[in-house]
Every structure is written in structure tokens, then in C-alpha cells.
Amino acid sequence: MESTLSILVDAKREYTDKLISLMAPVMIDVFHEMFQEASKLSNNRKVLQMFQKLLKEVPNWSNAMSKQHTDNLVNKCSWFNDLLAAVFVSHVKILSAVRLKTENRKLSLKLPTNEVFVQTVYNNAARELYNDPYIFNEVQSEYARDKELFKRFGDVIETTIKELLPVQHILQTYMGQTDENIDVEDSDPVDDDDVDHEQEMGEEEEEEQGEDALDDGYKPPEQSIDPPPAPTTTTEMDSEIKPPASEGESSVPFEHEVGGEDIKTISTQTQGEEESLFDDAPEQRTKKLRYM
């Protein structure tokens, strides 16, 4: 099991690195052209602010533009779809290795389309550059700039993969359990019939011990029985007055009283407008104090 899992981890790393090496250079060219367009539109005045305005429009790209950027990647790698599927399958296999029971369960995996994945990557990359766009405005070599962008876009791609993974579906399939106590060690499932049989055996043993104690001549001590108290009469007013419910006591029945059905909560929060990312960036990077 451990050797198989280590192989999956290595395969996941190789597939992910290959995907990053394919997408990052193309993304660098796309955002570099966007920065040059911002320079022309702003006449080289407040270029970063114009660049941020163009970055805010990335999530609003049309389907035709998303398909165009996807085709640029597919043209460079004809097996891009297979590579993307291998990345998601390897991630899911590693996550599904953590389970409570050893029984095999089938997990139906729905992969994102190429257009959805590429568009999500560009959205996250635009948000990353919006927060720190100074890399295009700083005086540095093209090699140093591309190296830094390659690293940042690689992190963006990995974040997008984790964002699109069906983690909730995996947990419900392999970690779903109604009991509150979870045993993390491997153990055979206990049958309900065995539990009832054990309880009956325990009751029979207690009865046998009680009979043995009587056979040994044990006699319980005599206890004096007091006469029952005289019944008290209640007036009509007393019968009408009922004690108030204690504080914190609710008249709503418990869950098992209403049938034991699962109660699901529905979020009433409405989806608001698209939130803005951050304020416009200044023309120069501000220095931040760092603790050594």
C-alpha cells in the first residue's frame, strides 16, 4: 500500500510539473502583451492602474476568447486533454487513499473541461498580478522577470487544481460515517446481530450469578415497610396552575421525536455582485518592514 501510494505521489508531481511547464510560458506572453496594451492606452502615464483595469476584465472574457486561449495550449500540446485528466486522476487517487473502511467504492469523477480549467487559471493569475503588478514595471532583465512569473504562475496552476478537485464528494464517499466516534485503526466491522447476542449473554451471566448468590444461603436484611402517606387533596386552582417551563427548556420535540429525519439547512445568503479585488496600486513598490 505504501509503495503504491508513493508511486502515485511521484506520478502526480511529474504530471503537474509537465502541465506547469506547458502553460506558464504561454501565460507569460499573454500578460506581457496585456501590459504593453496598458502602456499604449495610458500613454505611459499611470500604466499600472491601467494594467489593473485590464486584469479586472479577465473574468469577464467571452467564451470565444476562452476557447482561443485554450486552443493556443492545445496547438502546442495535442495531448493536453489527456495530461489534464492524468493530473486530476492522480490527485483524486491520493485523496481517496484515506478511508474508514477497506471496502471498495466506486467514485464517479467529473473532470472540468479544458476551457473551464484554462479560464479559471487565467482568473486566478489575473488576481495574483493585480495584487502585485510591479514585476512588469521594475527595471530588470527579461530572464529574471520570466523566472519570477514562471514560479508565480506555477503556484497559481496548483491552486486551481486544488480548487477544482471534488474534495467534498471524495469525503462523502470514503469518510461518510454516522457514528460520532471514529476509529482510525483497521478493524473489522461489527454486526448488529453480534452486539445483541453479546448483550443477551451478559444478561444471562448476571442472572446466573444472582441465582448462585441465593443458593449460597444469602438472605437480604429485613426492612420495615412504612405505611403509605395519606393522599392529599388538591384544589381546583392548584390543578389549573402548572409549573412554568424551566429556563432553556424548549417545547420543540427532539430529533428522534419527529421521526429522526435529517434536517438540512439552506443558506439564505444571496450571491452579491462581483467583489473588487484591491485598490489601485501606486506607481512604485512600497517597502515593507520584515522581522529578521
UniProtKB/TrEMBL annotation:
Give the InterPro entries listed for this entry.
Answer: DUF5764
Output compositional bias ranges, type Basic and acidic residues. 254-264
Quote any Pfam family the record assigns. DUF5764
Which parts of the sequence are annotated with region: Disordered? 179-292
- Ranges of biased composition (kind: Acidic residues): 180-215, 272-281
Q: What protein does this entry describe? A: Uncharacterized protein
Q: What are the top taxonomic ranks of the organism?
A: unclassified sequences, metagenomes, organismal metagenomes
